[in-house]
Write a structure and sequence with these properties.
By secondary structure, the protein is of the alpha+beta class. Helix content is 14%, strand content 35%. It contains 3 helices and 12 strands; from the N terminus they run βββββββββααβββα.
Length: 234
């Protein structure tokens, strides 16, 4: 019939262990000037194209128990009764234990202590048998002297006069607060395995209008990356 809108396609789930980037949220298709956005259940989503249109197809459904310090259960979107992993809070949510279906431990995702959040992003992870995986603000990597030099030279654009006190606090190991208000939050976030070579393990940046997470280290369990992303976006 003339003027009748074309039915929206049924976008099928994609395999959760597929390589590539993912996002966390409800957006199935971003809106444009001529097209309304489409949304769905909260999920780990991955890019998928249908009839030339880009979608964020569900891969893992995200459920929580609604508690003050919630537990999370992540289910395969293609088989909604099949558990991918579970996130259980410990120490009042200061860290989450991540387990597979059956209870096998996959690792831990930790909340960065307040005293370190000015130089390190809010969540980091630990996978058994691997170094700690952390994401520091790019100006805060290296020795205390290097941090001070970069901080004072750059005057941490967007933070103004606060930088001097931040750098001094870092050197005295007395930093409190959160650096999310600085201009550096818009830069790609890079998690590295601590060590001499510090290989890149996981990155997060804006892609196709969403906050996209990309596992990079071949040894990283994607389920731990999912857990970290879910906690960051909670």
């Amino acid at each position: 019939m003339f003027g009748r809108r074309k039915a929206e396609p049924d976008v099928p789930p994609v395999p959760w262990d597929r390589a590539g980037w993912f996002t966390v949220g409800e957006v199935l298709r971003a809106g444009t000037l001529t097209r309304k956005p489409l949304t769905g259940p909260r999920a780990i989503r991955m890019p998928s194209t249908h009839d030339g249109v880009r979608y964020h197809a569900p891969a893992v459904l995200v459920a929580d128990d609604g508690g003050e310090t919630p537990s999370y259960a992540l289910y395969d979107a293609a088989r909604p009764t099949e558990l991918v992993c579970a996130l259980a809070p410990e120490k009042s949510g200061a860290r989450y234990r991540v387990t597979a279906d059956g209870g096998a431990e996959l690792g831990l995702v930790h909340r960065t202590p307040a005293a370190r959040r000015t130089v390190q992003h809010g969540w980091w992870l630990r996978q058994p048998g691997r170094p700690d995986v952390v994401a520091r603000y790019h100006w805060a990597r290296g020795s205390a002297k290097e941090i001070a030099t970069r901080g004072k030279d750059n005057v941490v654009r967007g933070a103004g006069a606060v930088v001097g006190s931040v750098v001094d606090s870092v050197l005295s190991l007395g930093v409190e607060g959160d650096a999310r208000t600085s201009s550096y939050e818009s830069r790609p976030v890079t998690w590295r395995a601590e060590g001499d070579d510090e290989p890149v393990v996981l990155t997060c940046e804006q892609l196709e209008g969403v906050k996209a997470y990309l596992p990079r280290a071949s040894w990283l369990d994607r389920r731990l990356a999912f857990a970290l992303a879910v906690l960051r976006e909670a």
